[in-house]
């Protein structure tokens, strides 16, 4: 049943898809072996490198993001290999489960789910591993379950100081296209991305940006692989084509998404997300709540996980808000179930959507009788005003 | 150039068009002489009666709303006829200009642009007009320039007590489908409507709901007419067809709009608009401003015109908000130019759009240095909460 | 109910709307008073001149084509004025009825519905009219009921040789954008156009291209007019705006249509229509039927009216084809009812649509037992091959 | 660049996507953890069973069809297992390559690429394999490279008579939803399907229908698997959800596709494809060419591969037709490169698209100087007429 007005889809992804992207998705399917497709393929394969900040190949899968996790592992490792994973939250946990299902050994560093990857702990483990038993370090750039962003550059530096040859694999599913990320500069070997967050597409495409070192590792890696095989992809991609049927319409939409990001300018996109996040945290602080992220420098620009006071159900709050304001919010995952709710503020998003979203939360808090200090939206407005670039952030892109 | 996020189009119409309506608009054009069209025609011609609350014919023009003003006049009057018009605001003024251009004599009752039609003054004029020189009384139900709603039922009663035979013609362009209106019950002879406000369509369709008395008047009316002629329309409409090419795709979209209104239920639609209007006025009062409408019982549920303090430019404020928040607002018209700005809160609209809209205004006031008391959005949230139906207004229509 | 496959909508308009135009139609409605709209307005007001081949103003109405007929008359004439009309077919007849309803006197030259306007007869009448009682000559460029195109340049020359000051008004509803037409070069005073044929839009916009002489006539013309008034329009159009709410989304779509026509190139568009028409006639001749148009030089490039042998019902044939092939065709109008059917081959149309259309007709003829020589589609293919530009007509526009 | 008219996309998939499906694809993305999605998930998971003719689980992957091949193998087999594959054409070859890349041993029965799976040869091999070394038999139901359909029921019977326990895995990528197929009745263990052919969606979803026996095999199968794991999927699917982010918008579109197939009725859908195929072959025979399929009973209803006479390039012909008629056709694959071209006649397809397609081919043959007998389209029309159900095949589904 239709509910009046545009839904505020404030889960931390999939995100609100802009109409030009939806329109591109709805264009007729084209011949994936014809010249029109070849040109499209070359364009998006080249264009997508910019959001990874890489000059190296980016493999595009006609599959959702979880598949790209699997691709990273099977293209570089052999059965029984050991990987070092840092459990920063729920999605890090899921990636670990996948690695184990695939027959890898996982050495796990438990985190507190309130802070990012501790590079020093990684350093310590690698420094110990003289035998180079550990083949790869896996980390999540932006933990979608907690709203914590990890410092990947620092992690790389820590790894480098040990001289350990392990590959560095990073999940950027909820940061790609909304938080500054640099595959090449930071020395990442495999970056895992998806279409449905900062890229503003529906789910259905995923990515591996791959370093030379990762490809070299692939030469001796013995995990069985076919659908996910990088080399077949990279070979066919030279002319803009794919070794098997690609997700044609999603690629048509990706082209538009890349055009939009380029038009706004990635630095502007990243600033816009930071402003939204700061305004959201201003409201949360004003209400008297904690964010799940406990480290100032690590707050995620793309989502905020909010802890409710003991004795209050985050799921009941979310249900109330969904019913009354037609706004879905993210739930608490794993150990955070019913304890936190998550506000997505990423993708195709602007100031009035921030305040509209926060007003929905504030009205929900009141309706559910959860003690809080009213005025959170005001606080958010002051934050937005304070962070306003001269003349308005949107000035450059006003029609 | 694309500006991130969905635009808040808060002018008092055209309004935000819901996606199902846009999708219907984009369906392939069909044969306007074929059986599929006939069924569509019958359905919308019948269905649209419900929003006028009439059992009498509603003529649908493939033309924008201004055309339906002209249709009302040329179908019922003869050159040189006198009509009595009440200048409640800018749009009443435009209708008067049209009448004069068409060669009618207009007797004008000047209003103060802050209150609705004064039925007593109409009564007085008609009571004087023993010769029945006045052929029609023209009034605007909801003045889009001022945010004032007039009591049409009271106007009709006043006319009736004089026994004067003048027709009653009412403009409902910005009230149809968003404010309770009853063509039959209130004894209106011609109701003029358009597609681009409460019906949530783009501009391009307009309507005349017509009484028996109006059609009878048409028999002797000598204004030249062809395109606007009711009788050709009504005759062809019997089978769902039109005497000339109709706006096929707009009618496809109208069908969806009517389905949506019926699904939500017109009483719920009207309540939703009243809640949004009350919340908006709560913010305006909190800021310390006046609404242009000065009569409590006459506040429009579909838009609010806000008066800025002397010495402040409403147009500068609107420009700032457009640039910084990508939100167009309505400008002051005629004597209100630069003095007021207008907030549309009609059509496909819900609570978070109310608060998002008001936050854009409040941030604009701050940025422009216009003195106001912060906290207007808070006040709006309290208003929305206070007016909430048990279990949430949207409860019934949650997906 | 959905019928498998894309419908072949082969009526002579409204025509198949290309997807990019449908997508533009489905873009969100924008503020018709804002800067984005102003830019759009200026662009389409300027761009549309090219399809009329004029440097003079083109007025765009938010109304369907019939309205533009009325606009032509009320902007230039006074009640009781005489106009000379040439009854080349059904639509000429309708225009005449309109003129009479509007209180004009119509002097009618009856045609045979099988040939175009006879300029010599117009010449003769004007030459007789020493008193200049006739204020305007009205002709239809492409008769949609018969598939006959008239030579407007010749008509103008004939008028000029008499020195008679009558205005020349021409209906191009089914030729604009599909048949070469030159408002300025041919000295037309008012050209009437619509959106739903060669411009490939749905119905809902119409046009008047107006000469200086026509505007001058308007100064003394006393027909009442307001909605249709040129001068209000032209004044507001200077900045890309309109005196009353325009059909925003249709204008968004018009911009795309103009881009598409420009990209293909109008001369190529015209050639493409001629090829389709010749191929269609090749099939008709092969089947052993007559076209309604009896003059070789006057065959319409945009539609073909086909005469069935006596004793066979064109309507029954059309019904069979609609049921079996999901293809609507145009019916016979007025005196041609049930005698002819009309094949539209205009707008967004190419070779395979020609042959697909003709195969639907040929299968229908067989199914209805109408005697004909099989092989019409073959004949059409030979015609298309013979008329092929070197390298393929579509070569230039292949993606 | 836009080429006038709707493209005839006559490759054997991806197929022409109907507008209602494109519209569903372009609906806003919804929360894949919310109640609206749950209802959608349950509906499509249940509904899709009908096109597989199964009561058993169908796993839906957010990945293109090739992925579902991999899923079939990794869910049921262990490294080093032997599978028996029948090389009926290019896609069978690709599946074999995948199996080998994944570390399986492939025992290959070479086919002639002109006929379907020879059940007797399978029988012979299995009858020999007393040690049950062969774990699975893999066959392609409809070889997209050759236009040959294999008799899967016969294959199953042959396998059954040997008492051999091998699983039967069948690729239905280009038959699902266009050719009668019965997962349960025919005793298939894993059926592999994709979205982009008979289901009329873009590429991006794929399917495994799985038998109890296949799931049981999975319990001991040691191929590493995570993304493709059936059991995680089936467990989450109970409530309509998925273990990781699904391709939301594709599922929205799948719902519409299933509704459309159900509305037309699968038996009618299958008949429609057979009629199109027979008409196509009538044209091919008339032209004097051979189909690649050499066995009468095995002609594919969804595509036809046409052999050109020696010395003529199929690729040159396809290029000419693409340029001149904007119609992509399928190329010859593997050993058939440049020797055959393939005509897709599947998905959202009807009679006039058949004849339009064939006319494009016939005009191309003439333009390329390839000797052929003219009149193929005529022959196709006679075939269509002869196969017409009383009253027209489309009768039931006319709007």
TrEMBL record, chains A, B, C, D:
Entry's InterPro entries? Aminotrans_V_dom, PyrdxlP-dep_Trfase, PyrdxlP-dep_Trfase_major, PyrdxlP-dep_Trfase_small, SP_NH2Trfase/AEP_transaminase
Among its keywords, does the record have Protein biosynthesis? no
Domain (Aminotransferase class V): give its ranges. Answer: 29-317
List keywords of the entry alphabetically: Pyridoxal phosphate, Pyruvate
Is Thylakoid one of the keywords? no
Q: Required co-factor?
A: pyridoxal 5'-phosphate
N6-(pyridoxal phosphate)lysine PTM sites in chain numbering: 197
Instruction: Quote the SUPFAM superfamilies the UniProt record gives.
Output: PLP-dependent transferases
Where, by residue number, does substrate bind?
A: 342
The molecular function terms of the Gene Ontology recorded here are: alanine-glyoxylate transaminase activity; L-serine-pyruvate transaminase activity
Protein family (similarity comment): Belongs to the class-V pyridoxal-phosphate-dependent aminotransferase family.
Q: What protein am I looking at?
A: Alanine-glyoxylate transaminase/serine-glyoxylate transaminase/serine-pyruvate transaminase
């Amino acid at each position: 049943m239709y509910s009046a007005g545009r839904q505020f889809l404030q889960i931390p992804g999939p995100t609100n898809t802009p109409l030009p992207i939806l329109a591109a998705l709805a264009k007729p399917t084209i011949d994936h072996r014809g010249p029109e497709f070849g040109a499209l393929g070359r364009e998006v394969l080249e264009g997508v490198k910019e959001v990874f900040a890489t000059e190296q190949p980016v493999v595009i899968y006609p599959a959702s993001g979880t598949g790209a996790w699997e691709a990273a592992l099977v293209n570089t490792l052999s059965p029984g290999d050991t990987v070092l994973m840092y459990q920063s939250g729920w999605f890090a946990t899921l990636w670990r489960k996948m690695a184990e299902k695939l027959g890898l050994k996982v050495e796990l560093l438990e985190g507190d789910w309130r802070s990012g990857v501790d590079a020093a702990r990684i350093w310590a483990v690698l420094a110990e591993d003289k035998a180079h038993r550990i083949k790869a370090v896996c980390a999540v750039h932006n933990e979608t379950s907690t709203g914590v962003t990890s410092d990947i550059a620092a992690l790389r530096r820590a790894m480098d100081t040990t001289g350990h040859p392990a590959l560095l694999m990073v999940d950027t599913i909820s940061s790609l296209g909304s938080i500054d990320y640099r595959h090449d500069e930071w020395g990442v070997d495999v970056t895992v991305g998806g279409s449905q967050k900062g890229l503003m597409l529906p789910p259905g495409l995923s990515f591996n940006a791959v370093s030379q070192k990762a490809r070299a590792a692939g030469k001796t890696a013995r995990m069985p692989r076919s659908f996910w095989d990088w080399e077949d992809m990279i070979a066919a991609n030279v002319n803009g084509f794919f070794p098997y049927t690609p997700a044609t319409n999603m690629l048509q939409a990706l082209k538009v998404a890349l055009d939009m990001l380029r038009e706004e300018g990635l630095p502007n996109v990243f600033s816009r997300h930071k402003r939204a996040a700061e305004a959201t945290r201003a409201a949360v602080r004003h209400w008297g709540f904690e964010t799940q992220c406990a480290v100032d420098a690590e707050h995620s620009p793309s989502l905020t996980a909010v802890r409710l006071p003991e004795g209050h159900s985050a799921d009941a709050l979310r249900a109330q808000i969904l019913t009354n304001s037609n706004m879905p919010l993210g739930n608490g995952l794993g150990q955070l179930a019913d304890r936190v709710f998550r506000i997505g503020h990423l993708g195709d998003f602007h100031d009035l959507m921030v305040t509209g979203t926060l007003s929905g939360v504030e009205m929900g808090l009141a309706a559910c009788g959860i003690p809080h200090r009213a005025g959170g939206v005001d606080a958010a407005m002051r934050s937005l005003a304070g962070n306003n670039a001269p003349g308005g952030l949107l000035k450059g892109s006003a029609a």
